[in-house]
Amino acid sequence: MIELTGVSKSFNGQVILDNVNLKVAAGEILVILGESGTGKSVLLKHMIGLIRPDAGEVKIEGKNIAHHTERQLLKLRKDIGFVFQEGALYDFMNCYDNIAFPLREHTKLKEKEISDKIGKVLTLLDLKKVEAKMPAELSGGMKKRVALARAIVLDSKILFCDEPTSGLDPIRSRDISNLIRDISRQLHCTTVITSHNVRNALRVADRIILIAKGRIVFDGKGDEFRGSDKEEIQEFLV
Amino acid sequence: MKTLIHSLTGFIKGTGDALWFLGDVVLGNILCFRVRIGEVLKQIYEQGVQSVVIISLTALASGVVLALQGYAAISRFGAKEVVPLMVGLTLVRELGPVFAALVFSGKAGARITAELGTMNVNDQIVATRTMGVDPVEFLVVPRFLATVLVLPILTILAEIIGIAGGYFIGVYEAHVPGQFYLNLTFEAIRWVDFFSGFIKVFFFSFFIAWICCYQGYTTRGGSLGVGRFTTKAVAYSYITIIISNAFLTKFILTLWG
Lengths: 238, 257
Prior knowledge:
The structure holds two protein chains of two kinds.
Chain A: E1 2-11, E2 14-24, E3 29-34, H1 40-47, E4 55-60, E5 63-64, H2 70-76, E6 80-83, H3 95-106, H4 111-124, H5 140-152, E7 158-162, H6 170-187, E8 190-195, H7 198-204, E9 207-212, E10 215-220, H8 222-227, H9 231-237
Helix pairs in contact in A: 3-5, 5-6, 6-7
Chain B: H1 2-30, H2 37-48, H3 52-74, H4 82-121, H5 124-130, H6 135-172, H7 178-188, H8 191-217, H9 222-256
């Protein structure tokens, strides 16, 4: 589904990703763990073509997107949902219009059908009475739920979440993690999440990778992660 | 020497980026008919209609001051009838377009930069790309086109209101008969005078749209960055309007007299 081969990236001479190789299978939930500034978000942004690699290939469903034009990437991204750290909802639209935006852009659905579809997504995410609210009126957790609703409203095959639990208290953080896992399972979508929260990663992930100094230093299941005696992982678990 | 080379490189790169951005807006979108009419109309309302009051007040005050100063100076030579001509021509050829452009860039231009800048620092522009929508088409082109379309209309309004301001001073302060004042004004202003000012406005509106959209679209550095880029956008717009006005005036005078 997603395949990165020999991906390297530097910014101003500083190596952020160094020959990264990674495969994500269809329907899998992968969590990218790492300390702040280790290149988790950069890796995620390579997968959606927001950043181009200095070297290597990034394949989505067999197509190398590393040399796609922006127009080609825009087409490709219709099938991908992306949840930003702070939600990145349009602050000039209410929640309903924010969620309806991808439907209005990429489908020919009538307003009634859009309304029905949004109703279903809101029920799925247990969001009540938020349609008329502006993003500024929402709490951090609610903003992330609405952002998740916007990301999945087109029945995306791939879901990317960039630090979806950052800035939330442990309970909200757990809820959002569980929600992402449940949604991914229900929609059978391939999900990649960046995080520095081990507890949530273990709760959600089918597979975990740990990034340090631009390289993948661990790639395996949650149990293997817990049981590993690698120094980098022990530091993380402590 | 190093600083000079660094500044020069930065300037060349900045200009190149700004030209590339303009190419994307005009060639990549507007000329390919990637224009969202609904969004353009929304921006016309937000930029145009909401700038009417401030531009009208500025124009009215300009007309009043021009007439007051004109009468104070010219009545010494007993040539009061020259004043309607002076007020009309100055407003139509010079002050109307320049004042409208300056006020518009300070209000609507600053708003464009602040809006796009805030969206940029809050990841809304990147989010637009991740949803498979071109942010230039969705967010920039409507603001760009609205600016280019609205400022000329506001300028005509400013000129009419400015002349009205002069008229009130002429009639109620200098006691010139109203019909006489209007006849002198309309006789004085020829089409060539109107168009020589009006052409400038298209250049000004184009520069304001380009500068303010580009500064907003490239804003970095959180809320401080929004403030810095907005100030920069207004300052660059003012400088561009004033300098380009000098060149355009010379060019137009050489062409039409």
